[in-house]
């Protein structure tokens, strides 16, 4: 029975996507065009440059294309279904999360798991195509592939908690669209989504090392392309694991505080 | 638009502005997000300019003119016509049905839905970058060049508005088309700020004739700085005019789509 509940919660957002063919078509087209554009851009930029910031052309192209694919992992549209925490707080429907037989934190986790698995299917499909056409390089060894998979798993785990913190913020502020946008921007910039962090100035890289964002994407992709050598992988993975533990404890505490702020309409 | 209509627009805008001031922290953060979004474009462009000098045969002072033009055009778009970007959300929430019952054009009501506080930040950073770009430029800024630059910024604003109006028109029929708007914004931010001749010819062609992103800032900057592009000079020089024509066309499409609108629930 618990498995049935878990399955139903996990498929909420992917079902919304599957029932909207224009959105599915848009995702396919967007992913394809974005990969082609990013691949072309980085190859064009490297046309008259050798290795820069420790990345050669193939490494930079592989990093950029994988970043596009990885961005699919959590990009489902919850807003259309009025299912973001921000909307639930605004419309007062958040109270239903607390009336169900499933605790809100478990519902949230299951839903996020469903979204990430659905996104993973897209990312893996895209990766297979990119690998087949030579748009990305394969991992340099089985060890690199194994370390990358472990690091990516931890990265997605950290990303889950980062997104959860953003959603939990909605419990404490009446209007927070701007704060959400700023934090999302920080997540994308400091995770190396816009451009590999290695291209940024040293002070920027040092600052990023003290924040959880680079653990979500920059670390696994840098391991994949070989910018972080295998000898440093253990330390980086340990840091990712530490972020998972720290954020798990923090969000658990915030869930308890958040529950105290939820009131049904009328008090 | 009559004088009375203008007065109503002004009063609604003033009320919207006061409404935004209700939550002061949110107001300041919205100003910040506009600035932060623009800064992200600058950061990306700066990183590329620093690491890959001589991008596409352009020196950095010439390249700077591209993001400066695009960002100023974007800031003006956000301020005057930017609610088109959120029209999809308004359609999904069924607000268009309400707008149709009121004695004011639907397009104007969409634009007056709220005050775009983030435009303050957008325009502040964009104006700063434009001043920086002009001060670093070695060009002789004659009256003709300045006039063309102003026309290019306005044309860029109208072209961006045209693109979002097309998406909003599609959303009137397919509400999920709103998704395309977010992608469009991402594409404009990522690929609109540097010379497109670094891309393969086919990809550059796609961003010229498929999605006319090149006409927003790249072609006008090329005309101003005397760089060759993949299109004839007259076509590149006509970018501001194309922006105007595209916007007029998009408004006709919006009117047609609105006539065929049947509500989000059928």
Automatic annotation (TrEMBL), chain A:
Family annotation (InterPro entries): ABC-2_transporter-like
Keyword Phosphoprotein applies: no
Record protein name field: ABC transporter permease
Species for this entry: Streptomyces spinoverrucosus
Keywords, ordered alphabetically: Membrane, Transmembrane, Transmembrane helix
Keyword Hydrolase annotated: no
TM ranges: 117-136, 142-166, 178-197, 237-255
Automatic annotation (TrEMBL), chain B:
Keywords: Membrane, Transmembrane, Transmembrane helix
Transmembrane segments: 27-52, 64-82, 112-134, 146-172, 202-221, 233-254
A matching Pfam family: ABC2_membrane_6
Keyword presence, tRNA-binding: no
Domain of life per record: Bacteria
Keyword Metal-binding: no
Matches recorded under InterPro entries: ABC-2_transporter-like
Protein name from the UniProt record: Transporter
